[in-house]
């Protein structure tokens, strides 16, 4: 189980059943710190999603690297590349990898047989 799911279960147990926090944490095998954890940057994830979707719609041949560099260098956002990549992959914006086309080579002409020496 994900820690966030366990945390939610423990919070429901404390709210609905009146169980102590320590007992709920022991029952769901999470720490009390995990029980009280509140993610701070969830609001920015929505903003990152909006930017990535807008960029990939406007420029269909941009992959993650170009999108990230545009957000970082042009727009000036200081988001971590690992975080932006995680959201990019969750949105399934990955570009299709095109197979390489094989070149068709013509067969060379047969070698000419000399009539006489030199």
From TrEMBL:
Highest taxon of the lineage: Bacteria
Protein name: IS3 family transposase ISSusp2
Organism listed in the record: Roseobacter fucihabitans
């Amino acid at each position: 189980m994900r820690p966030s799911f366990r945390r939610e279960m423990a919070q429901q147990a404390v709210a609905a059943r009146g169980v102590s926090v320590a007992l709920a944490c022991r029952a769901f095998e999470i720490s009390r710190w995990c029980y009280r954890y509140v993610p701070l940057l969830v609001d920015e994830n929505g903003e990152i999603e909006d930017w990535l979707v807008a960029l990939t719609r406007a420029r269909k041949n941009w992959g993650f690297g170009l999108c990230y560099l545009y957000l970082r260098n042009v727009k000036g956002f200081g988001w971590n590349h690992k975080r932006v990549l995680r959201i990019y992959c969750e949105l399934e914006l990955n570009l299709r990898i095109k197979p390489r086309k094989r070149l068709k080579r013509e067969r060379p002409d047969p070698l000419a047989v000399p009539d006489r020496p030199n």
